[in-house]
Amino acid sequence: MELIDFSQLTQINRSFIPNTLREQESDIVFSVPFQHESKTNEILIYILIEHQSTVDVTMGFRLLFYMTQIWDFQRREWESNNVSKSERRFRPILPIVYYTGAQQWKTPLTLEAIMDIPDVLARFVPKFDSLFLSVKETDEVDLTKTGHPLGWLLTVLQKEHADKEAISSALLEAISHINALDEEQAQQRRRAIIYFLLLILHRRPAKEHEDLIALIDQHTHELEVETMAKSMADVLREQGIEQGIEQGQTRAKQEAVLKLLQIQFGDVPEDVSKRITSIRSISSLDSLFEKTATVQTLDEIDWQNYND
Fold first, then answer.
1. Does 223 share its domain with 161?
2. Which of 171, 193, 220, 285: disulfide with 253, CB 3.0–4.6 Å?
3. What is the pLDDT of residues 118-166, one digit of tens each?
4. Are 44 and 116 within one domain?
5. Which residues lie below 8 Å from residue 265, measured CB to CB, with a gap of 6+?
6. Quick one: 40 and 169 in the same domain?
């Protein structure tokens, strides 16, 4: 890892997960310089965050599928930008799986794990290495040693089903470090707080919401936490999440996305509003809602990902 310059980590604004799978997983792609033998090249770090509580034996296949999607996206960029054939080089991908479930994961992240294949044919099966992190089984020190806000978010996620005292303690510890971010990282701080609020509203009992939100508000600087939380709760009620009501109307989903955008950025441009109201797929609108909660600017939303 000492060969990777994490100080120049750049997030690529695109997801490679089909809409039908976005409830069970999400992904993040980073570009980062890699120094080797006096040469510096760009590599891609692909992080797949698995939200399922159970082990998926097809994970090796899914990783390979997403990696080929990334390379195909790069190939299409070459063609659209008329890159000369002599300069066309796929970037190496470092795949990482973040597993957030509690069940122990023992299945290898390989294609052979889901094949009954004779040894004589094994050499014809595509092979690749990957890194695996079981969030619930990883020590807090290992999650946070880089100092990146994502590590502290994961320490709170570890306690999503713990008692109220444990998650309160995790929130306080994480917020104390996130508050220490400099002004240039103000948007990361805001995104982290939004993540905590969504985690509370989605994963914690309703009777704890008021106290946990107040806890965040008391220890967060320059953010109207209670106002943000109330607006999010209103959005969740409209979606039928808070009270378990299945409304299912496309319009309700569209309005939920628009309202969350207003929380983030104030007035929503007319062209953006039209894009949202043109989306009819419920799964696409749900994915867009999740994306909206984490973006720093409207430019980070790749609308092609949400076409019906």
1. yes
2. 285
3. 999 999 999 999 999 998 889 999 988 877 788 898 999 899 889 999 9
4. yes
5. 298
6. no
Residue 243 lies in a domain: no
DSSP string computed for 128-179? ---EEEEGGGS-HHHHHTT--HHHHHHHHHHTTTS-HHHHHHHHHHHHHHHT
| pLDDT per position as a tens digit, 173-226 | 999 998 887 776 777 788 788 888 888 887 888 899 889 988 988 888 666 776
Domain of 94 in residue numbering reads as 1-73+90-137
CA distances from 247 to 231, 250, 252, 298 (A): 18, 9, 8, 27
Structure tokens that stand for 102 in this block = 């509690």
Q: By the 8 A CB rule, do 5 and 32 touch?
A: yes
Half-sphere exposure of 200 (CA within 13 A, CB side): 28
pTM of the model: 0.66
| CA–CA separation, 201 and 204 (whole Å) | 6
